[in-house]
Amino acid sequence: MSSHSSDTKLGLIGKLMLDGEMICETGLHIGAGKGSLDLGGADNPVVKDAFGRPYVPGSSLRGKMRSLLEQSAGLVSPSDLVYLSRRRGQEVRIHQSDEAGDEICLLFGRNPGRVERVSGDAMEPKTATPARLTAYDAPLDLDSITAQMRENLDDELTEVKSENAIDRVTAQSNARTLERVPAGAKFKVRLVLDILCAEDRELVATLVQGIRLLEDDALGGGGSRGSGRIRFSGWKLSWRNKAFYAAGEPEQALLEAEDSAALHAGVRSGEFAAKLA
Fold first, then answer.
1. Residues 247, 249, 255, CA angle at the centre, nearest 5°?
2. Could you give the angle at which helices 58-72 and 203-215 cross, rounded to 10 degrees?
């Protein structure tokens, strides 16, 4: 829990910009949905922009980090979860509480109104909590798909992974194909953390914790079958205070880190927090 309280007053102090590179260590599959299926193509295509280039949706980055932080904090028991959707077979459960210092709700936001708990009585948060974290869609760095890689790809920018599900009784195989962005591909990542009060500075370390958890988990589909291993590098953190927007003052370069371990060490120093003012 953070030191936020119900009396904490909010007002923009500044925005912390985190820019980095996400590198695929294995093939990455973030599905586009069945509506994008092309004749003769993979059963499960990846999401692409209007120019046909794969990208990583900000919602995928944000949602996976939220899930991992909830698990890390021990907030995934039925009494800690509420339903976003109760549609049969498509249930969505997330953590939500009415605690003023709940870091998950501070980072990712909280809406007022009645919500059904997975276990226990319904909850009705009294106030809205603005989300501090924004995760932008991460575009593909086209130069990361080298000429050598293209020679071995099934499409210009993607590969197709074939999988078989084997029936345990008849031994009959059920073939399926998965479109993936290949290992070695790089995406340009931008995260923005709004600092709306002095207590929000505590959330920086929590955000970086989520980044490091993601590196040791999987992003997108097929994670338990080898897809979705990623790592981050080339972090650059800059600070845009209120005067940046009001008076055109320049942004301040705060930190450069080669990897997420160095990023974590940098943001946990007392000197770093003092710069967010």
1. 145
2. 100
- Which of these, 206, 61, 55, 224, lies nearest to 142 by C-alpha position? 55
**pTM, whole model, 2 decimals?**
0.92
Cα 184 to Cα 25: distance, rounded to the nearest angstrom: 6
Domain assignment of residue 9, yes or no = no
Q: What is the pLDDT along the chain (277 residues), one digit of tens a residue?
A: 788 887 889 999 999 999 999 999 999 999 987 544 454 456 789 999 999 999 999 999 999 999 999 999 999 999 999 998 888 888 899 999 989 899 999 999 998 888 899 998 898 877 789 999 999 999 999 999 999 999 999 999 999 998 888 888 988 888 889 999 999 999 999 999 999 999 999 999 999 999 999 999 999 999 999 999 999 999 999 999 999 999 999 999 999 999 999 999 999 988 999 999 8
Can you give the residue range of the structural domain that contains 244?
Answer: 14-153+182-275
Assign 79 to helix, strand or coil.
helix
Q: Which residue has the tokens 């210092």?
A: 101
d(C-alpha 147, C-alpha 131), whole Å: 41
Tell whether 191 is covered by a domain.
yes
Residue 167 lies in a domain: no
Q: Give a yes or no: residue 264 inside a domain.
A: yes
What residue spans of 144-259 are helical by DSSP H?
Answer: 147-151, 203-215, 242-246
Number of domains in the chain: 1
